[in-house]
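dumping this here before i forget
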Amino acid sequence: MPNVAARHDHDRVWRPWTPISTASDETVVEVEAGDGYRVRDTQGNWYIDALSGSLNTILGYGHPALMKAMAAQTSVLPHFDLTVGMHQPAAELAHRLSALLPGDLNRVLLANSGSEGIEAAIRMTLDYWTSRGEDRRRVISFANGYHGSTLLAQHLSGLPVTGGNWAEPFPVSRVELPLPPAELRTARASELLLAAFEAALCEADDTAAVIVEPFINVGGGIVLPTGFLAGLRELCTRHNVLLVLDEVFCGMGRTGRMFGFEHAGITPDIVVVSKGLSGGYVPISAVVATEQVYETLSREPVLGGLRYGHTTSGHAIACAVASAVITTLEDEGIVANAQAMGALLATRCEALLEAPGVHDVRAFGLIAVVQFDAEQTAVAVEREILARGVLLRRQGDTLMLVPPLTIDEQGVYTLFERLEAAVRVAASEAR
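structure:
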């Protein structure tokens, strides 16, 4: 059973994205240590971490290469302001990232979080068109997409939780899914989605960019149909708008390729990477743009460049750790392991389609999603699997299994066995 932490230990912490009425829940697991793909609570109970910390601990806990990189950089230079100078960790990371990406995605802006990265990407797209002398301010996104928690990032989403009572900073056209998630994995679904985006593009002549995730994460754990991203790239090219890929969650191996869009064989105009970039060890994000975007912003009328940055943008320690993550992914075959373990987990989870209360099972790389027929069923399964030593992510009526990319076969089998048991118990209690 999870540890019961003393409420007075937590009563000064305002937990993000948590209802105040439940923020001091005494059943909250208080994690104190981690090892590999498991974490331990303050009572000594171990859990499989099937949510990878905050979806970012892709190499697990206590990875020696990351700790070594962090210690080495800390001993010589923690950080230096990139607006007035340069340091080698930032330069190295920029080169490493551009080498991983296709085409002329060569210009790397470093920030601290996915939200900041999206904020910067939107500023880039709007300033790009201003620099070209064109009045384009509209962005097209998925209605149930999620792109972060800053103002501009939340404004892109149509999810109720991101709504706010403020003036619209720029117009957004939000495309609704034409089919339920369980029916969205066919060629016909791809055609319907592309038709919806083309309609949004044709509806207004002021579109600056289209922004999508390769996998809709917070909006329901939704796998997009094969052919959609390639078709969207063609649409954006034909309508002369920028394509921004939000790889905050998918990037750095989560989908069984280094970046989610690689499955489609396309090159976007701007890519945002964050969660896995430092393995969750330190905050960092990267916005990578094409040479065309970069050179166009040199004509920006006020600064002659991007008017965006933070005190710790390109933090030297974070950059050093991120480079170590890239080295580890390449040297230890982590992305291939994610693909293999994801396929194994998906195969096992498909058996749950016969279980009472299970509506759909879907997967993309090392992401497995189980959708139930009601949110209360998902809540019951979440409770049962927690008691069996698994931490995972629930989003409405879906449960997402997102373990570190370093998980092995035994870990996958154990994870599924505990999930299967939890589903069985929850189903029997519902009768």
